[in-house]
Specification:
By secondary structure, this protein is mostly helical. It has one domain. The protein is built from four helices and no strands. The protein is elongated. The two termini are 27 Å apart.
Length: 133
């Protein structure tokens, strides 16, 4: 998410709309299968740590519960991004409806910004939460 938001977005900005939107559609079509894989791996490894590392939810610290909650929220946000604006973006690019594709890319950008922020918060909680939560 950081790469897409902080590197690819500014680099693609000067491109003409059709080229820029086609680029984003191609990038996302390759990126999103990896996100689904990461979602599954993060959920499996996180739950594995809770059950086999901490001995269950009751023994896990508050920070672990907060991280799980944020992680589940991020997964739900990503699912929405994938099933709503991403599908709309793909349809708009396929139809050469550049105005609609631009609108959907803007929606995706805002969702990615939210998830990037939540991810950074989760990393901070994971690194320091046991000391204050």
């Amino acid at each position: 998410m950081f790469f897409a938001y902080m590197v690819l977005r500014p680099s693609a900005g000067p491109l003409e709309a059709p080229l820029r939107l086609k680029l984003w559609e191609r990038v996302f079509s390759r990126f999103f299968p990896w996100v689904w894989t990461s979602v599954a791996a993060l959920l499996a490894s996180g739950l594995g740590m809770i059950f086999w590392g901490y001995g269950g939810f009751a023994a896990a610290g508050t920070y672990v519960h907060v991280m799980l909650g944020i992680g589940l929220l991020m997964m739900a946000i990503y699912a929405h991004l994938y099933f709503v604006p991403w599908r709309r973006l793909r349809r708009a690019v396929a139809a050469a409806n550049w105005a609609e594709a631009g609108v959907q890319l803007g929606v995706i950008r805002r969702i990615v910004a939210v998830n990037l922020t939540l991810g950074l918060i989760t990393v901070a909680i994971g690194a320091s939460g046991r000391f204050w939560l």
